[in-house]
Amino acid sequence: MRFQLGDYVPYLVNRAGVSFSNTFSRELDRFGITLPMWRVMSALLDEGEQRLGDLSRITAIELSTLSRITASMDRAGLVNRRRSGEDARAVLITLSKDGRRMAEAIVPKALQWESAAIAGMSEDEVRTLKGLLQRIYGNVEGQDVVVR
């Protein structure tokens, strides 16, 4: 079997993701936030208040990194962090009013970038692509792949 990098699925997924991330990050720079901050904001906009651990799962950001990001966002007035009344160890994160306004202002731009990325694809192709990417993520998330 001959290995060809240009046909290797992890490479193709990563290449597309890096290209999109780099381009969209320049858009986010105008708002003074990073791509991981946007992932946090968009998750909270979509899902509402979240425990830090659940937010880590949703955003695919490692817990200790996410803790630092949300602390920075709290200082910037974009999110509110508080201890749960039910479990003092649990940290709950929610968008602040300013964070919500910013997230809502970014959403149309995010959708424009998505439209540019899927240009020329049919609705069925987009649905298939999203399903396949979700399946790939599910196949590899949290698993130590052992190749025999």
Can you put this structure into words, describing what you see?
The chain is mostly helical. The protein has a single domain, classed as Winged helix-like DNA-binding domain superfamily/Winged helix DNA-binding domain (Arc Repressor Mutant, subunit A). 64% of the residues lie in helices and 8% in strands. The protein has six helices and three strands; from the N terminus they run H-H-E-H-H-E-E-H-H. It has helices spanning 9-29, 35-47, 52-59, 63-75, 97-117, 123-140, and strands at 50-51, 79-83, 91-95. Strands 1-3-2 form a three-stranded antiparallel sheet. Strand 2 and strand 3 (91-95) form a beta hairpin. Helix 1 (9-29) packs across helix 5 and helix 2 (35-47) crosses helix 5 (97-117). The protein is globular and about 55 Å long. The two termini are 15 Å apart. 18% of the residues are buried. The model has no long low-confidence stretch (mean pLDDT 93).
